[in-house]
């Protein structure tokens, strides 16, 4: 379907040339093989040519991130880790914030049109998401530095960009002359994302229909400004990526440069990530697991990966960590021998928490885990608990009259640890309500001597619902 695509050269007046060193990478396992062996790759355009293309010098790779929220969630880790692997192999990566395209909305994978986002909200999301992406890659660099021996000589920091930079001053006539004139409506209509909507009752708006041209223009803009030749996206982005390749190809055909001097362009898609039960990865009771600690605590983030099923844990270790595959296979073998110890889940939770929240985050998460699930409070230090739970929704300060004058059962209902009094009584009857790790009766009240270091108590309802009460000063 595709000829060899070659760059038309940097003829734009808005060039931001990247000084990318030429390296001989032929002695190393290439990023495409590494990604394939870890399960990142769903589809690739011309894989053999791409494999060779990545060997002779550093290339520029990009992946888009829509600012539909002001924080990253765990679903973003997959494409960003894909970029990290390219960084490790000495290539330049561009996480592209879709500040402009978010105002339109991508129809891919959706049965109905997205609600239009207000510009003020999009602007807020862009700023916060750009900072979040920078933070992720800084921490990913630290994480990779401890696990990849050759990182120092090959690692190039990411260039976070925003497509609002070229769309904000782009006139409709200029856009149509470039993207519109080189696009074919029959190809656009044939895209799966368009076809599924054409056959639906709601149909598809012209704005959504033209989204693929906007994303195609992104690839062309990055191709001309930075020399970007590879786009990575989810499997539902295949049609949009192909649109970009076609636009680059047709633009290159109009170039006056010699054919042999033109660069090629490629696309890679990652699989749609679901759990073994078919649920969308990153959703917990309908709520996203955020990378922002203010939205999802370090403890909850850690526990999300601790709860990974045995069927999924091996796959997630390959995708979300930089552990050698041999280490992962050995861990899975150890796990199969003693599944009750959840060796693989512990390793996964520790690795991904370090990637996102640093080593200090791992320490805090494990500390909170020991405190909330432990049965022996003699070794618990109240000061450490307060530091570890700082800002956590489970840490509640209540007045002395409530602390000592209300049953623990009533406290769990008042503060949402149990749904209602009936549910709380059922827990007590099943010996499932705990104060400082010990089961209690329905009429039990907190006594001053129950407070750990005179400062707090730990209440658990059922398997994993907790609250830590402190005295209000």
Automatic annotation (TrEMBL):
Keywords: Aminoacyl-tRNA synthetase, ATP-binding, Ligase, Nucleotide-binding, Protein biosynthesis, RNA-binding. Its EC number is 6.1.1.1. It comes from Lactarius akahatsu. InterPro entries: aa-tRNA-synth_I_CS, aa-tRNA-synth_Ic, Rossmann-like_a/b/a_fold, S4_RNA-bd_sf, Tyr-tRNA-ligase, Tyr-tRNA-ligase_bac-type, Tyr-tRNA-ligase_bac_1. It catalyses: tRNA(Tyr) + L-tyrosine + ATP = L-tyrosyl-tRNA(Tyr) + AMP + diphosphate + H(+). PROSITE patterns: AA_TRNA_LIGASE_I, S4. This is Tyrosine--tRNA ligase. It comes from the Eukaryota. NCBIfam families: tyrS. One of its GO terms (molecular function) is tyrosine-tRNA ligase activity. Belongs to the class-I aminoacyl-tRNA synthetase family. PANTHER family: TYROSINE--TRNA LIGASE, MITOCHONDRIAL (PTHR11766:SF0), TYROSYL-TRNA SYNTHETASE (PTHR11766). The keyword Aminoacyl-tRNA synthetase applies. It is an enzyme of class 6 (ligase).
């Amino acid at each position: 379907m595709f000829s060899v695509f070659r760059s038309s050269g940097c003829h734009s007046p808005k060039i931001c040339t990247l000084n990318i060193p030429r390296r001989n990478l032929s002695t190393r396992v290439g990023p495409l093989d590494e990604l394939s062996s870890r399960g990142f790759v769903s589809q690739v355009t011309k894989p053999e040519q791409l494999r060779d293309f990545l060997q002779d010098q550093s290339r520029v790779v990009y992946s888009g991130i829509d600012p539909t929220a002001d924080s990253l969630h765990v679903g973003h880790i997959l494409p960003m880790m894909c970029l990290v692997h390219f960084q490790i192999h000495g290539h330049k990566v561009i996480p592209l914030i879709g500040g402009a395209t978010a105002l339109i909305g991508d129809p891919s994978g959706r049965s109905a049109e997205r609600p239009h986002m207000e510009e003020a909200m999009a602007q807020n999301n862009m700023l916060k998401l750009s900072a979040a992406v920078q933070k992720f890659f800084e921490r990913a660099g630290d994480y990779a530095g401890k696990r990849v021996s050759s990182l120092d000589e090959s690692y190039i920091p990411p260039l976070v960009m925003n497509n609002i930079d070229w769309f904000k001053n782009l006139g409709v006539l200029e856009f149509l002359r470039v993207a519109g004139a080189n696009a074919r409506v029959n190809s656009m209509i044939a895209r799966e994302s368009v076809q599924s909507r054409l056959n639906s009752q709601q149909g598809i708006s012209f704005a959504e229909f033209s989204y693929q041209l906007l994303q195609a223009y992104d690839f062309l803009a990055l191709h001309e400004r930075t020399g970007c030749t590879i786009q990575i996206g989810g499997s539902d982005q295949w049609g949009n990526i192909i649109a970009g390749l076609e636009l680059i190809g047709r633009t290159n055909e109009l170039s006056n440069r010699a054919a042999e001097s033109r660069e090629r362009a490629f696309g890679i898609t990652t699989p749609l990530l679901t759990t073994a039960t078919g649920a969308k990865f990153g959703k917990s009771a309908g709520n996203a697991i955020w990378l922002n600690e203010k939205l999802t605590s370090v403890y909850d983030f850690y526990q999300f990966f601790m709860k990974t099923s045995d069927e999924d844990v091996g796959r997630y270790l390959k995708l979300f960590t930089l552990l050698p595959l041999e280490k992962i296979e050995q861990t899975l073998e150890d796990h199969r021998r003693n599944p009750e110890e959840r060796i693989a889940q512990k390793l996964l939770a520790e690795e991904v928490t370090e990637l996102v929240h640093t080593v200090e985050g791992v320490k805090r998460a494990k500390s909170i885990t020991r405190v909330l699930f432990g049965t022996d409070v003699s070794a618990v230090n109240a000061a450490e608990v307060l530091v570890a739970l700082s800002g956590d929704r489970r840490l509640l300060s209540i007045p002395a009259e409530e602390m000592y004058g209300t049953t623990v059962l009533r406290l769990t209902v008042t503060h949402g640890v149990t749904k209602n009094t009936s549910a709380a009584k059922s827990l007590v009857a099943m010996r499932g309500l705990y104060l400082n790790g010990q089961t209690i009766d329905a009429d039990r009240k907190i006594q001053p001597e129950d407070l750990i270091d005179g400062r707090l108590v730990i209440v658990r309802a059922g398997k994993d619902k907790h609250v830590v009460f402190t005295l209000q000063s």
